[in-house]
Each structure stands twice: as C-alpha cells, then as structure tokens.
C-alpha cells in the first residue's frame, strides 16, 4: 500500500499541469511589438530558402523527377496540419515556449520538460550547423584560405570533433546573438528586409524561368533519355539512375520518399509560436502569421519546382546549384547575379548560398537535407524556450532575467548563443544533425495530441475573455460529471457535452492509437528494409501484423470521433477534429520511426542529462509545486 501511494504521488508530480490565469495571461515582461507582418516575415524567413536553392534540384534529379511538384504539395499540406495545431494553441495560450508550454498545459510537466529540453538541443545544433555552413561557403568564395590556414596551425584530429576550430562561426553566432539581445523590434526589421528581398528574387526566378519553359521536359520517355545520352557519350548507359521517364520516373515510391525529404523544407514556422509574449494581440496574430507564412512558402516552393523542371529535363539538373546552372544552360547566365542577391538574403534567414560564383560544398548539401532550420530561425526561439522553462521553475531562475531596457531574455539569449557558438567551433555536427529532427517532430506530435485532448476536456484551458465565448444556452463553463463508464459509451456517449468520463475515454484512446500506430509504422519500415536488403518477396506475417496494428490504431480514433466536443469558441480552432490532429500525428510518428537507431541512442544521453536537472532542481522548484504555490500566495 505504501509503495502504491508513493508511485501515485510520483505520477501526480510528473503529470502536473501548468495553470494559466485568465486574468494575467496577457501580461508579459517582454515587449509586445510584433505585428502580423513581422510574424509572417519571421516564419517565411525561417522556412523559405533551402528548398529553393538546392532541395528542388536534388530531389527532382535523384528521387522524384518532375513530380517533385506533387511532393512539395503533399509536404506543404502535411505541414499545414501541424501549422493549424500550433495556430490553435497560439490562440489558446499566448505565452512564450511554443510546443513546450502547449504540452505543459495539456499533457503534463515531465512530458513538457522533455519536449522543451529536446527543442533546446534542436535549436542549438541547428544554429551551430548552419553557422558552419555559412562559413564554409564564405571560405569557398575566398579559395578555402581559412581552412588551409587553420589546418596548418590548429588541426584537431579527434573523433567527434571538427577538423579545425571554426572561430569565424563563433563570431557570426555571437554577432546575431547581440542583434537578438538588442531588441526584438530591431531584429524583426532586419529579418523583414532580407525576407522581402528574398521573395522578390524568387518572383524574378519564376518569371524569368517560365519564359524558357518547355512542357516536354515533364514527358521525356525512356527511349528519348537513352538516345540523348547515347549521342552524348557514344556508349550504352545504365538507365537505373534516371528512372522510367515521364512525370513520375521513379514511381510512387520515389514520390513518397521525395515527400518525406520535402517535408523538412517547411519546418521552421514553429518559431512564430515562441512569440506569444512579444506579439501584439497574439490570439489573432500568431494563428494568422503561421497560416500566412506556410501559404507563402507553399506557393514559392511549388512555383520554383515547376519552373526548374520545366526549364530543364530532370536528369540534367545540377544537385548543388540547380538554378544558376539551369539559367546558364538556357542562355540566361546573367540571371545568376539577381539569384546571388536572393541567396545572400537567404544567408541572413536560411543561411544557404548555392551559386557557381559562390561554390557550394558537399557538407552544405548534407546539412541542407538534414537541417531544416535557419540561423536566425534557430537562434530567435532558442532563448525563449529557455526563458519559458526558467519562468516555470524547471530551469535555473537566473535564466528568466529580462533586461529592463531591451525587454529581452538577456541571460538566456547570450547563454544559448554562446553554447551554439562553442558547438560550431569545436564539434563535427554531421553526426548530430539528425537529433534536430527528433526534437521538432516530437514537439509537432505533442502539440497535435494536445489539440485532440483539449477539444474533449470538460474544463478546457482558460483563454482570454475577449476571445472565448460559449454557444447560446451555455451561460457557464461545462461542469464535471460523475457518470460511470460503460463500454457502449465508446460509440454512444450519454452527454452532448464533454464530461470527465468523455475526457478519460479520449485520453486512453489517444494513447492506444499512438502505440499501435508506432508499432504499425515500425513493422512496415522493418518489412520494407528487409525486402530491399534481400530482394525477396514480402513476408506474409509482417503484412498481417501491420494491417492488424493499423486497424487497432484507427478504431480508437473512431471512438474519439464519436465523443462530444467542447463548444467553446476560440479566435482560431483546428477544423475536422480528430481527423486533422490524427493525420498530423501519423506523419510525424512515421518520420520519427524512420530515423536511425543511433540517433535515438544519442538523444537518450541528452535526456539523461536533462533528467538530472529535472529531478534534482525542476521538480522541487517548479511553479506548479504545491509548496511553491502556497508560498507565492502568502
């Protein structure tokens, strides 16, 4: 009995929910100066860039062919699912912290700490890796003089460390850290200038490129491709790298594989969700900023991918500098210079420069395929996650200090910037880049889960009084119900409004669906890998288990769909619940189980480090600790 009581107390502690005071929710120590345009520019700057300057050519040539347009469209639609979930929480909880604070409000303290801790790692590695990519391009521009000199005087031949200390990367990171610390308004102005210029160049590329469009480039047959290379090389060629021609030369499998890669091109909009305490009227501006930024990025990626594949056959695209090479091949080499302007602007937001006059490196291409963050897109939200966790008592109190004049989290900003700078100087980040994906995808999954759970709770998260109302006839919030559970309530609930029993049903169904879904995807990926490795047929048992697990993951969602939803109105709400959050969870879990096991082992080490901080500091100092609450009320 004592053991049961102790386990129960631990469970209650780990699942403590963050309470959001309706009266003080709009208060903030940070400066509320960001408009909808600022937030949209922030999201576009953090998201748009890599796909435009390299990803389109790389995916089109090696994975999808001209159907890269469809891959980007599917990736955009799946990203919008995540964007809608973030938009609803931006309307519900206008606080700094993004996925961390959203999961804290809904799922519990321990889970929120894990999400926040992983996001910190994601942003730190993201900032460090793109800083190294930035310096790699600059060094290539001046003939690799920096690398040559540093290797001659301070080479580091140690596994896990970089070839040489990249001091220039540290300087770039600290310069941008100072800009962010100086004031969010000044940062937003710089970001807007470069983002607008970047979009202007993209418009130029589309207009200029379409003047050279040839629809036949979407319809090359196998014989035509064979004849083309036969005339060029005068030898028999292997057609395997070029597929079967047509719009989908690599088939449906190539389309799906390309979609998974293109999905990472849309990661970055979540930095908008960290501005909950710096946005003007965040309940409206954050949802609008997220939706608008994703819409702009979607249109840009679709336009560029269509333009590029119409200008040149997919099998002739350059994977390192597709745009300048394509323009050169159609007799418009002068167009490389306007593209250079856009690339320089992207350096300030997406940190990518892919031109013949500014050579791209293989490391940069690797970084682009794995790292979806921009330099500013990683550095801006990083201190705000730390600040939010420190305010809640889960990280050290001094990290929550806000400068009186600039109204920015100064200590968190410089600490996170210094950490990112040190990693950029000393570490070989190729082996760590995959860790960024786990933190981001886990946050996406938890936010989608939180939207699902909140929609069926009888006492939903408080929202500001001017943004939340109830349907006619409901003069007071939904009351708790003491009804007992019956099995038929899974598909035939007794109440027309959420009750505690309904909430419990949804909670357990969500857990069951998530577990079965993970098993389904793991089994499917294992089967596909085994088939590809052995070139044998499909294993009947694996297919049967995958189908059974998939059915078991769908049935709980059907039960959730039968339950009554809260009728509380928000300034923005995700449509088609539970379908939209469920699809979002499916995509994110699929991408997570696709990551190699070594990535999860490294993440476990990081979580152990964070777990020590949480156990020895966070649990005791948490703002949700009853003892701390009692002292605060005295």
Notes on the structure:
- This protein is mainly alpha-helical and 634 residues long.
- It folds into two domains: 30-448, Amino acid/polyamine transporter I (Up-down Bundle); 500-633, no CATH class.
- The protein contains 24 helices and no strands.
- It has helices at residues 2-14, 36-47, 50-64, 68-92, 99-106, 109-141, 145-154, 167-182, 184-210, 222-233, 251-263, 282-311, 322-329, 336-349, 362-370, 375-379, 381-391, 410-426, 433-455, 500-534, 540-561, 579-593, 597-621, 626-633.
- Helix 3 (50-64) packs antiparallel against helix 11 (251-263), helix 9 (184-210) packs antiparallel against helix 14 (336-349) and helix 20 (500-534) packs antiparallel against helix 21.
- It is globular, with a radius of gyration of 25 Å.
- Mean pLDDT is 82; it is low at 350-372 and 460-481.
Residues in β-strands, percent: under 5%
The average pLDDT value, as a whole number, equals: 82
How many separate helices? 24
CATH fold annotation of the largest domain: Amino acid/polyamine transporter I
- Whole-angstrom Rg: 25 Å
> Using DSSP, what is the number of strands?
0
| Helix percent band | 55-70%
How many separate domains?
2
Which short descriptors sum up this protein?
634 residues; globular; Amino acid/polyamine transporter I; L-ornithine transmembrane transporter activity; 2 domains; mainly alpha
